[in-house]
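Section 4.2 – Deliverable D4.2 (structural model, holo form)

The reporting period included a commitment to supply a predicted holo structure for the target in complex with pyridoxal-5'-phosphate. Inputs used:
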Amino acid sequence: MTFQNYSTEQLQKMDAKHHLHPFTDHKELRDAGSRIVTHAKGAFIYDSEGNEILDAMAGLWCVNIGYGFDELADVAAEQMRELPYYNSFFKCTTPTPVLLAEKIASLAPDNMNQVFFGSSGSEANDTALRLVRHFWVLEGKPEKNIIISRDNAYHGSTVAATSLGGMSAMHEQLNGAVPNIKHVMCPYYYGLAQEGESEEAFGLRAAKAVEDAILEAGPENVAAFIGEPIQGAGGVKIPPASYWPEIQRICEKYDVLLMLDEVITGYGRTGDWFAAQSMNIKADTITTAKGLTSGYMPLSALIVGDRVAKTLVEKGGEFYHGYTYSAHPVACAVGLRNLEIIEREGMIEQVRDETGDYLLKSLQDKIGDHPLVGEIRGKGFLIAIEIVKDKKSKSRHEPSGSGASAVRDNAIANNIMMRAVGDTMIMSPPLIWTREHIDMAVERVKAALDGAMKTL
Ligand code: PLP
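Output (C-alpha cells):
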C-alpha cells in the first residue's frame, strides 16, 4: 500500500492540512496529530507507531465479527468483478440486496418483513422519519406528524437525524431543526432517579413522560415515538425492565407508531439478533446499520413492519425517496456474508450464554470497588462505567467530563481503546472476544483507572 512510503509525521501533516474529521475540534487535532491506524486483526488494531491496541469499541460500535475476515474481502472482490454497481430505482434490482433483505426479514421479529437500504444509520433514520409521516398521510391523517424522542438520544448526524436525536450541543449548531420533533427525559436511572425511587418506579415515570408529551400534543397529532432500546452514544443507558412494556402500552393506546433505532444494538450486541427480541419490543420500524456489515462496507437497513409496509404498498403510489447507493450490490454481498458468519460461528450465542455475563461480572468484581467507579452496568457486549469523584454522592469531576476523559487517555496509553461519553466510559467490543480478551481488558481498564487517579 502506498501509505507505507510515508512516515507518521508526514501523514499527520497532510491530515491536518486537508482532512476534516467528524466530531472533532480541529485546532486540538492539529496540535495533537491524528493516531494513524494502519491495520487490524481479530480483536486488535495497530497504529503507525507500532502499538497493538485491544479494540474495546469494535471500531465505532460496528465491527461485530472482529477484524480480518478474508471471506468478506473475497466476497466484495467477486461482486465487484461481477457487477460493481447497479441501482434499484425504476423497477430494477440486483441479486444481493434481494437475498440480504430476505435474510434480514428471517432474523427480525415476525412482523418485520420489508427492508429499505441506505449507506448509513443517519440516512436510514431520515428514511424512517419520512416513511412514518408519509404513512399517516396515506392513512388520511396528515396532522399526525409529531415525533416524540428523548434527551440524549443519538440518531445520527444529517439534519433530520440530528433533529430526531436529543444531543443539545448538536442542536445548538443546527440552525433550523426539522420541525415537530419533541424530546422527553431518557430512562437513565443512575443519573436521574430520585432519592429512594425504585428502578421499577423510575422506569414507569420515564415512560409517563412520553405519555404526557403525547397528551400535551394531542394523540391525533403524534405520528411516532423513536428510541434506541439502550441509548448508546448517550452513555449506554439501559432502561429499567418496566420501561419498554409501558412504552409499548402507551404507543398502542394512542395509536402512535414505535420506531426503534438499533443501529448499535442490532446484529448481536445484546445477545440476540435484535434488542427488540432481548427486550420483547414490538416495533413498526427498526433502523439498523453498523453490525449489518460489521463495518466492512457502509450499509444500513431500515426494517419496516407489516402495518406500515402494507399501507405503503397498497395506498402509496410512488414514495419519492431513495439514494444512489440504496441496495448497493457490493455492500449487500458483504452484509449477507457477514450475517452468515455471525450465524455460522455462533457469535450471538457466545455473547448471550457465556462472554456477556463474564465481561460484566469481571468488571464488577475487579474494579467495582475502585474509588473512581460509581456504577458498572451492561447488557451483552454493551458496557458503561460511570466515573465519579465521590461514590456516595455520585458527584463528578470538574469540569464536566474530565474524569472520564482522563480514564480514556489512560486506557489508550494502556493499549485498550475505549470511549468517554460525558462522565461515562463505554465498551462495545467485537462479539468474538474470548475470556482471555476479557481478562486482558479488565486488567487494562484497572490500570487506566489507577493512572487517572494520579492526575484527577
Ligand atoms: N443511530 C444510532 C443509535 C447510532 O449510534 C448511530 C451512530 O453511532 C446512528 C444512528 C448514525 O449512524 P451513522 O453514523 O452510520 O450515520
